[in-house]
Each structure stands twice: as C-alpha cells, then as structure tokens.
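For this section, I looked closely at the sequence of one protein beside the tokens encoding its backbone, which the following lines show:
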Amino acid sequence: MKNRTLRFRAILVAGVALLSSPFTRAADGWSELFNGKDLAGWKANAYPDSWSVVDGAIRARATKESSHLFYVGDGQADFVRFKNFEIEFTARGEPNANSGVFIHTDLAAGGAALRLSNGYEIQLNSTEKEKRKTGSLYDVVDLATSPVDETKWFTVRIAVKDRRITVQVEGQTTVDYTEPDNVQRAPARKGRRLNPLGGAIALQAHDPGSVFYFKSVRIRSLD
C-alpha cells in the first residue's frame, strides 16, 4: 500500500509541477523560475556555497566537487518534476568554463565528483579541451563546434515532448533526438534516459575553475 501511495504521489507531482512555482504564470503559459534577486525556489544538492546571485544572475562556481542547483518550487519536496515542457534560459560563461543543465534528473549521484546519475545533460562549455560543445545532449548527440561565443549572453531553449528532445541555441537547432524504446546505454550512462514520471531541472556547477551565469529562467508545460 505504501508503494502505491508513493507512486500516486509521484504521478500527481508530475501533473501539477508547473502549479507549484512561487512565481506568476504569464498569459502565454510561461512561468519564471528565477526572481532575479535570490535563490528562492532553488536548492543545492551539495556545497550550497557554490551558488549565489550576482547582478541579477545565478552564479555557478563549485567550491569543492560539483554541485547541482535543483528547482524545488515552494520547497515542499526535494525537487519539482517536469515531464513534457519547454524551458528557456539565458546564460554566459567565463573563459575556460564548463557547466550544463539537467532535465528528467533526480538526486542520485555517483563518483567522487558527485555527477548526477540520471536524466540528460544539455552541455554548456567554453573550454578548448572539452570535445562536447555548448548545445550538445551530452554523450548522446555531441557537437564538435560551439554555435556561440559563450562569454557573451546567449539563449537556450530545451523542449521535451514524450520521447522527443530538442535543443535550440540562439534559435539554431542543435539537437532533435527521439529516445528509442528500450534504449540501451553503456553501464556508466545507464541512467541517461527519460523518466516516464518526469524529473527535476538542475543547473550544474562543474568545478572550482568554471564560472557560469544564468538569468531569465522560465518554463511552460507542453501537456
């Protein structure tokens, strides 16, 4: 009975995720997830001092190992689930910086670096050595060349509808991927798949040498 109750609660959360935002939904369906002033509605899974608000933007810089900032809405749960949605944000990075945005993820993490185990990562990267460039669906659809100068503000839009994921960077489609039925991943990436119940949105502070900024983070349902 307990398992059935928990499963029902998860489905319920997935269905009303957008209603739990502490911010007002606009007439066009978009809800702002960041108020431009503080980290209300967001919570780090580790090393919370990796996150701050500077000049109206969320600043990501890991203080030790990696840290991920989860959208938690009103804080009633560890994170808010989003299933079919479109998220748009504006970002920029300092030179030689690595970051990313996770979708359909959760709190499971592995390894000394505390990398998230589940869901997909949309890559943000201004380093020369990293082969997977900004706009990649990390280790699934990888770009060899970045479509933007990451040191200047750029806009990313990610859409998830059923099994299809699309990514646009400055209006250019970099990913149009449909997850196959019974998709198989390498053991190290076994959690890289969509969750039928939806999952969390999380920003990444990759390492102490990387600094990225996020502003104007907004989301709308595609259900």
The longest strand covers residues 212-221. Residues 1-22 have pLDDT under 50 and may be disordered. Residues 109 and 116 are 4 Å apart (CA to CA).
